[in-house]
Design goal:
Blueprint: H1 13-66, E1 68-72, E2 84-89, E3 97-102, E4 107-112, E5 115-120, E6 123-131, E7 148-155, E8 161-166
Antiparallel strand pairs: 1-2, 2-3, 3-4, 4-5, 6-7, 7-8
Length: about 180
């Protein structure tokens, strides 16, 4: 009688452990890859939303200051901690309007008829300046008119400076120091 040797047809413990370690490494790198991709997507989405908010605010400020008829309270040379401007505009009636920065709450605020509206929140810094260096109307009194109003601000977490320069369509004499 002939005896056949029995063959083992299974995995050895070492092979199972090696396979589990390799699957663990592949899973760890796949997880890191997915985590990095998701973080990149979320950062891109957040920055895109903030840039859109900033663009809306810049457009609103441009619309507010485009047809300014009178203006007061804007810093000429050095920016202040809480810059603000009170103005009247042809586009929005005879009521005084005010754009200001609330540094405590980090908001850009539009005040209309004693009601405050937050234009943008989470603002890290805000600069509101006027350029009034030229005698545009050619008057002999030597008065200088407002040539441009500049607005700059940064949003928390974005780090990009958003800026616009508005050119009033009316002659506005500079009546402040």
């Amino acid at each position: 009688m002939i005896m056949h040797k029995k063959q083992n047809s299974g995995f050895v413990l070492i092979e199972l452990v090696t396979t589990l370690i390799l699957i663990g490494f592949i899973g760890a790198f796949a997880g890191l890859f997915i985590y990095t991709g998701i973080n990149g997507f979320l950062a891109s989405k957040r920055n895109s939303e903030m840039a859109l908010k900033a663009q809306v605010v810049l457009d609103r400020l441009s619309a507010e200051l485009r047809h300014v008829e009178s203006i007061q309270g804007i810093p000429v040379q050095s920016p202040t901690l809480n810059p603000s401007v009170t103005y009247r505009s042809r586009d929005f009636g005879a009521a005084d309007r005010r754009i200001s920065y609330d540094s405590a709450n980090q908001n850009i605020i539009l005040r209309v008829n004693d009601t405050d509206y937050v234009l943008l929140d989470s603002v890290d810094s805000f600069i509101l300046k006027v350029d009034a260096d030229n005698n545009l109307d050619g008057s002999l009194d030597g008065s200088k008119e407002v040539t441009a109003i500049r607005v700059d601000f940064k949003i928390n977490g974005v780090g990009t400076l958003f800026s616009t320069r508005m050119y009033p369509r009316n002659f506005i004499p500079r009546t402040w120091p």
